[in-house]
Amino acid sequence: MDKKMEKLKQDYMNVQIPTELDTLVTQSLRPAPQRKRSIKWFLGSAAAAIALFVSGVNISPTFAQSVSELPAVGALVKLVTFTEYTAEGDGYHADVKVPAITNMPDKKLQDMLNEKYIAEDQKLYKEFMAEIDQLKDKGRPNMGVDSGYEVVTDTDQLLSIRRWVVQTAASGYETMKYDTVDKKNQVLLTLPSLFKDGSYVSVISENIKEQMYEQMKADPDNKHYWIKGESEDYPTRGFDSISKTQSFYINADGKLVISFNEYDIAPGFMGPVQFVIPTEVINSLLVSQEYIK
After folding, report:
1. What is the pLDDT of residues 51-100, one digit of tens each?
2. Is residue 111 within 8 Å of 9, Cβ to Cβ?
């Protein structure tokens, strides 16, 4: 049985990353006829490997035990570690965990998300190792990369997954990505899909600025944000507006949470920062109250 699992991982490592994957998540919201045909050939390799991985849970008792210790996602849908890239050397290390969603009724959506995770984490690891190879000729690299994932929301209807990456050199830099899925309707949510029109961008942005000012006033020693126009030295630098593709998730209380990476809008000591948007601020702009309460 160990040979079967080894072959699975070998098949996975040989999968080529198609450039089209950058748009897979957006395409999952379109009607089926509009999806690119180029997705299909990748499903035949990566998705098949994922299917073999899931079957391995039932084949190998040891493997099943390790999977059973991973976080459960709802009654049926689960988030498991598909594979893990690790490397250790003189002055560098890498630990990249690749998640996979299993048991989702909509297999096309499940496969698209899993392919996205595979491609992005494989790219992260390969680029890191390529940089290490270049730096080895110049001396000790002194670099590291770690990535992982966790479920931040798991209700009867919503599943929100956080994936994080910490890259270290002289200092650390942490980024986060989120995916929020409507488990009942099998839809991947985007920020624009929640609102009637684009007016939410300015409304949410102004609320975030208000929260920034309130936090800095209440805790000036530990809270500091870069706000555009507030610095005499850098009048055009700092936060001014969220983007339509801003990172977000919906928490267990049904509140919209806007997320920023480390150094995006604040000094590094604050790390990644988030803002919970009061529902009354955006209620009239929502397409419906199905997700945000």
Report:
1. 444 444 333 434 434 443 444 444 578 899 999 999 999 999 999 999 99
2. no
Q: C-alpha angle 293/160/206, rounded to 5°?
A: 55
The edge-to-edge listing of strands for the beta sheet with 78-89 is 78-89, 92-102, 143-154, 158-168, 172-182, 187-189
| Angle between the N-to-C axes of helices 48-59 and 2-13, in degrees from 0 to 180, rounded to the nearest 10 | 160
Residue 111 DSSP code: H
Q: Would you call 271 helix, strand, or coil by DSSP? A: coil
Residue ranges in the chain whose pLDDT is less than 70: 1-75, 232-236
Residues with Cβ < 8 Å from 286, sequence gap 6 or more?
A: 194, 195, 196, 292
Identity of the amino acid at 218: A
Contact 30, 74 (CB under 8 A): no
C-alpha–C-alpha distance, residues 249 and 107, integer Å: 22
Residue found under tokens 């936090």: 215
Tokens coding 170: 């002289």
Strand segments (E) across the chain: 78-89, 92-102, 143-154, 158-168, 172-182, 187-189, 248-250, 256-260, 273-277
